[in-house]
C-alpha cells in the first residue's frame, strides 16, 4: 500500500528548491537525452550536446505558430519521432479564448506526472494551515469533448487529459479531495446538466464536503449564480428522492439517481438556510458547514470574479491554486494564506527547463515610435536562467519541457516576488498580448480590468455589479474608438451609466491613449450594456467549439475576426453611451 506523507512532500519540495540551479541543468540534460533524436532537435545541430550554453546557441526561441506544423503532423498520425523520442500520446486543446479557436499542443505522461507533483505540493502546504480530515470535495469540474484526430490520437482539453489519467483519481484520494459527483457527471456530454448534478451531489454530501473547488474561479461563481436559480428544484429532488426531469442524459441520470434517497429533513434544512440568506451572502459555509476553504485559480483574468466569490464564501478563506497552462505546469502556490491578489507560484525546477526574458517598459518617447506590434512593447534582453532572475523585475516565461516544447514563449508576463530557497516565486501579471490598441495606445487585459473596476465603483452605491465584461475596437468609423461591453446584475439609470462611461474613458491612463483622446485621433469610448445572460451565450458558444468549462476564460477582447462572439454581443446590446469625458 502506498503511504502518502505530507511531510515528505514538503521535504522533497524543500530539497528540490534548495538545489534549483543544478536541477535545471539536470532537467535540460534529461529532456535533451530523451528527445535528442527527434527530428526537431536533430535538425538544430545539437549533435548530442545537452548543456545549457549549446542549447541556447542552437535552439531558437519560438511561439506556438512555429511549432504548429510539427504538432499538426503528429495529430495527422506521423509516428516517427517528430518532437519527442517517445511518441506523443494525445493532443491537448488549449482554451484559446482570445483567438476564438483552440490551439493544438502535445500531451504525454510526463505532463501527468508534473501535474500530480504540483497538486501534491500545494496541497501539502495548504493542509499545513487548514488541515482537512477524511472527506470530500465539491469540485465543479467538467471534461470536454474528446475527438479523434486524423491520425487517431485523442484530442481534448489538457484538464480532460488529466482527468482521464489513472493517476488523477489516486492523487485526489491522497489529497483527500475526492469529488462528490460520480464520474458520469464529470464526463457528461451536457455541461448544464453536469453543473446541476454537481450542486445536487454536493448537497447530498453536504456534511462531508471540506473543499469547494474548480480549476478557475469563474466556474465557481457561475455555479453559485446557477444555484440561485435552481435551489428550489434541488431541494425538491432531495425531498422526494427523484431526480429532476431536466436531467436527460441516461448515464448521468442513472449514476446520480443511485445516490438519491428521499431525505425531507435535509431538504428542509437546505430550504430554510437558503431563504434566510441575505442576497446569498455566505451561502458556501451555510450549506457546507464543514468546508475549510474555497480553492481554484483566482489570479490573472480571474481577479474580476473575486468580489462575487468573496460574497458567496463569506467567512471562508479563498485559496488561489497553482500556475500552469496546457503547455505545462510552472509553479505551485506554497504560500496559501496570501490573499489571491498577492498569490505567488514557486517554480518546480525538475518539471522543465525555464528561461525568462527580461522585460522593461520603454521610456515614453520610444513607446510612441513603436506602434505596430500586437503584443505590448517592452525592451527585451537576452533570456536568463531560473536562478538568475531578479526580485521585482518582470519577465516573459520561456518553457522547455518533457512534452516536446523547446524554448517556447508562453506569452505570459510575470513578476518575481521573491525566492523560496533558490527558486523564484512568481506573480502572474497578465497575458502579453495587447487587448486594446488603435494607434499609439497600448492596453493589456490588466489595464482593462482596472478601468472596469474603477467605473464599477459607481455602481456599488446602486447595489449593482458588473456580471462580466469584454472589449472591442471599432474602426468602422473614423477615428476608431474603444467599445466596452458590460452585463449588469440589474438595470440602472441613464445618468449612472453615463458617468460609468466617462469614468471608463478616463481610467485608461496609458499616455498613448490619453494623448490620442485629447487630440481626437481616438474617438469617445463607447459603453454598450448587454442583456442578462449574454456572457452565458458566449460560454455556450465556446463549449460548442469543443472547449471545456474548466478552461473557460471570458475573452477580454473580441476582434472582428471573432465574428460569432461579436455577433452575440452586438445582438444583445440594450443601451449604449458615448463618453463626454474629453469634450471641451
Ligand atoms: P490554457 O489556454 O487553458 O492552457 O490557459 C493557460 C493560461 O491561463 C496561462 O498561460 C495563463 O495566462 C493563464 N493561467 C493559468 N494559471 C494561472 C494562474 N494561476 N494565474 C493566472 N493566470 C493563469
Automatic annotation (TrEMBL):
**Does the record's keyword annotation contain Methyltransferase?**
no
- Ligase as a keyword of this entry, yes or no, is yes
Under the GO molecular function aspect, what terms does this record hold? acid-amino acid ligase activity
GH3 C-terminal domain sequence ranges: 446-559
Listed Pfam families: GH3, GH3_C, GH3_M
What UniProt keywords are attached to this protein's entry? Ligase
The record's family statement is: Belongs to the IAA-amido conjugating enzyme family.
**Name the UniProt record assigns to this protein:** Indole-3-acetic acid-amido synthetase GH3.5
Native species of this protein? Answer: Musa troglodytarum
* Organism ancestry: Eukaryota, Viridiplantae, Streptophyta, Embryophyta, Tracheophyta
